[in-house]
Each structure stands twice: as C-alpha cells, then as structure tokens.
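Task 17 of the worksheet. Students: predict the tertiary structure of the chain below and write it out as structure tokens. Keep your answer in the requested format; marks are given for formatting as well as content.
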Amino acid sequence: MSSTTATQLLEWEDYLVVGLYFGFVLAVGLYTSYRSRSSGEGGSVAGYFLASRNMHWIPVGASLFASNIGSGHFIGLAGSGAASGIGIGAFELNAIYILMLLGWLFVPVYMSSGVFTMPEYLRERFGGQRIRVYLSVLTLMLYVFTKISADLFAGALFIQEAIGQTSDEWLYISIIILLAIAAIFTIAGGLTAVIWTDFVQTILMIIGALILMVMSLDAVGGYESLVEQFFYAAPNVTVYSGANNETNCGEPPSYSMNFFRSAVPGESDLPWTGMLFGVTVSSVWYWCTDQVIVQRTLSSKNMINAKGGCLLAAVIKFLPLFILVFPGMASRILYTEEVACVDREECKRYCGSTTGCTNSAYIKLVLDLLPKGLRGMMFAVMMAALMSSLTSIFNSASTIFTIDIWTRIRKKATDSELLIVGRAFVIVLVVISVIWIPVIQNSASSQLFVYIQSISSFLSPPVCAVYLLAMFWERTNEPGAFWGLMSGFVIGMVRFGLEFGWSVPPCGYEHEDTRPEIIKIIVGNIHYLHFGILLFFISLAVTIMISLLTPPIDKKHLHRLTWSTKSDTEVRVPISKKDLSEGVSNPGFEEDETAKSANGTKNLPSADKEEEEISCLRQAFNCVCGIEPSTGEVEKPPEISPEQKAKEAAEFLHQSPRGTLIVNASAITVMTLTAFLWGFYA
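Model answer:
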C-alpha cells in the first residue's frame, strides 16, 4: 500500500476554516480577559497568575491535557509510533497514575501552603533563596530547550508541508505569526484566558484527531489489518546494519506491538525497566512539580475540583495511544517509502532530513487523507495544540520570572510593576525561542519525542528526588536539598554533553561514528531512561546523607508544608537567617514586602494612582499590561489574624463525604483500566 504521491497543500477553503478558528479562539480569550478585569480579578497578581483560585474541574482538567499535548505530541508520538510501534504510548499511560499522585498527594500540600510557584514552595519549605533561584533558572532553561523549542520545531514541520514552502524565510514568518497570537492570548488575559482557551482547543484537538484516527484505520483496512501490515512496511530502498549486514534498518522491530521490551542494552529502544521506573521519575517531575501543570490545579476552587480536574485529564490521557500512535503506524503502511525511509538520499529528498522522516507521519495523514475544509480544521487543531502549549508555558514562565527572580532584583516592586514585568518577559521568551529554532533543526535525533524525553531524563531526576523528600520526609533540610540538586545537575550535564556533544549516525552508517570508544560504551550501554533512575537515586542519597549530617528544621517552620502537617492550624513561622544553618553565603532569608505581595498579604498600593486625564496611548498601554486606573484610595480587605489565616488554609482542604467518595471511586476505576491496557499490550 506504499504511496509516493505528492502531498496535498492547503487550499482557500482550508485557510478560511483556519481564519474562522483563530478568530473564535481569540474572541474567547479576550472575552474571558474582559470578564476577569470587570470583576476586579484581572488587575491583581492572584487573578492574573492563579485565575483567583475559582476554576471548575472541567476547565482545569481540559487545561491540564491541553498544556501537555502540543504539536510535539502530535508529531512526536505519531512519529515514534511509525518508527517502532506502540511502545511510546506507555509514556501516556504512565501519566495516568502520576496524575493521581498529583491530585491526591501533592496538590493538598501545595494548596494548604498558599504558594504561587513551585520554587516558592521550596523557599517556604527550606528557607533561603539559592534553591528557589536555581530551580527558577533551571525551569526556564527546560522550557526553552524541551517545551517551546520542541513545539516550534513540530509546528515548523507542519507549516513547511502544508504551504509547500520549504525556505527558512517562510518558516520563520509563519512561526512568528503563531508566536504573536499565542503571546496576545497570554498577555491579554492571564491564567483565566489561558485556561478557557485551553478548554476550547482541547475539544477541537480531540474531535479532529478522532476523525483522522477513523479515516487512517479505514484506509489500512481496520485495526487487525494495521497490526498485520505494520511488520511488512519496509521501504524498497534500504540499508543494513551489523557486522555481517544481518539487520535491515528499514524493517519495523519485532516487538512493535509490546510495551514490555528487552532491558538488555541495544536489544530494544524502550527497555521495560526504564518504562516502568525511569519514565515514572520524569513523570513525577513533570506532572507534580512543573509550574505549567501544577499552576492549573492550584487555580481550582477547592480540593474536590482539583482532584476532578486531575481525573478528567487522566481519562483523556487514554486517547493519545489510539488517536496519535496508531495513526502514526497507519501512516507507515500508507506511505512506506517516505515515512519509513532509511537511506540518506531518499530521506533528504522526501522531508529534507538525512536521519529519517518518521516525524512527517502525522502530517502526511492530515494533508493526504482529509478533504478540503476538514483538512483546514485539522491544521487549526494542530496549531491549537501548539498555541495551547505555548500560552501555558508563557504564562507559567512569566509567573516564575516575576515572583521568583524579579522580586530579588526589585525588592519594593509594586503589583503594577509585577504585572508589567510578567507580560514583558513573555516577549523575551518569544525571542529566545526563535533564536533556538536552528539548534532544533540540526538535532541528531530523528524522533522528536525521544529528544524531549532524553533531555528530561538528564535534568529532571534530582528535582523529583528533592520534592519527594521535601514533602514526605520532614528531616530533609536546605543543605541536603541544595547539594542533592547540585550533584544531580553536574552528573546530568555530563551525560547531556556526552549525548549531544557528538553526532550519532543513524542505523546502517555506524562506520561513520567518530565518538571515542569510552563514550560509545557509556551512552550505548546506559539507556537514557536507566540513567534517569540512577541519577534519581544518587540525588536521593546525597540529599538524605547531608540532611542527616546537618541540623534539622524546627517543626514550627513546617506547618502545612509537608504531607503530615498539611492540616495543621498552627501559625507557620517563616525560616529566618538565625534559624537556617547554611552560613552567610546565602543572604536574603527574610520575606520582603514584594514576596508578601506575591503571597497575597499586600494590597495594591494606593500610591500607585493614575492621573484623572489619561492619554489614549497610556490607556492602550494600561489595557495591555492589565493596570486598572485608580479612582482613589484602594479599598482594603478586612484584615485577619495570622491564627485565622492558618485556620482558613487548613480548612481549604475540607472535602464533602459525597464528593470524596465519587472522586476516589473514579480514581480506582481509571487506574484499573490503565492496568488492563498495560497487561493487554504487555
């Protein structure tokens, strides 16, 4: 069934659908932004960054899924499915269990602590600033290297084939337009607009992907035919690997329909040990400590809605295996010569890459199978995935920069300044992202999803280890956490350099490998998922050892910051320089006025007033930056005692018996179905 026909391009009907879609989503974003400002929530830090903690479980769950599923998933999951079958789908099933951990273990502690960002939680938990600042910088780096860059690269691939323009000029023009629209959504409305646009785009993504799944399975003759034909989908022009050329690089692997694959180095691309444990480490970091994800759950109106949002996202996470991975496998059958190419010259001719064209699997289906109009709708869905991811990252990254970094530079910044800086930082992220595009284009990895997961395995395990210990072991202290992070970061960066410092030739071209033998042995014998496991336990051991060798943190500083103290009603005493045994090399322990503002204990300053007569230019500036003109003294909310604040924080975790029963029963059902799928495709 191989096909080498020319790829269809978008026509005027498709562009009309795309234009209508963008107009609709933009209207939703601006409307929610207007409502947020009209209600008085948009002009505050809490309203902009946490949607005033008033979100229902449905938009929270939809936003969790949309923030996770970007163009990188559409292209990456389908591409890996085309390359080696269903194994990559195990990443999605693993996330279902981790979402349960998020809703039932992590979110209760985050909500009771009253924090805005994840680095801020560690600052409250350990005191000092060095961990908070380090994690803020690391998070922003990961956003650029794995999230923004990967989504842009995926979107770039789609744009190139959709418009039939492969020049760099058209590529950058298209990306800049998309980034501008995403930035408008983020700047205009804060988290409320982001969550509601995510909700709309999630519906579009699922509908479009379901339609294409049905059409692709129908094109190959159904599910049983898909499984049978996939193992024979090898290109006519191929290359061989091995000492005696015994391996055909163009043939799908024999384990393509299994999740559990050999753990022996070199025998499989996704060893079962790594899929069970290595993926779990990276997933806990991503789902339970990453600002983009956790920020959505922190916007929930109460714990039941937070758990309900996690459950909804978990249910939707069943879909990627069926709507992305299986269509990717179908694409290999339908377009074998192009999608499954292994010869360098052939691949260069088909997709412009010499390492493989599996990343084009989903794009081929969209452009060749779908009719006019519907093709435009799916293009809009792909761009929706891109913008959902980008808007979420832009908003969360601006939160981190504003609350965790800018307040260290400008200790007396007003709320208005914080809002302006947060939105301005979005522009900085856009510039960095565009600059990073050539690096991703020249990446040696032929599977986008594998590239993302490998970087996560090199940098995220230490963070996962420290958060787990911080939340579930009260004896963990600041020196232990800091040096656990530092040791893990150094080791991870060494592996990062070994992995990406040399180009690795694809299958059949091993004779061109110029890496030193020692690097071949280390990188070749230690899978990136196995490395993630080792790095996690090294960081864990260092943190525990140093924590035991240094003084513990007094319990008066831990109220509502750990699992065992989440329901405490005692007033939490902030860790001061006197209490912290980390020396004078880490100054700035006391919470300043800006930090208090970020924690919701400071009102909009009455001194920050606008003149009665405001120019049109200034009015436009205020509109973009979310600054509401002051008509006089700002009305101060009634002050409550620290004891009452502590009591209210603990009561926030209260759940009705009926709601608790529903979410717990639903969680058990979802996890049981997940275990069934693991067993069915074992």
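Marker's comment: Residues 51 and 192 are 5 Å apart (CA to CA). The radius of gyration is 25 Å.
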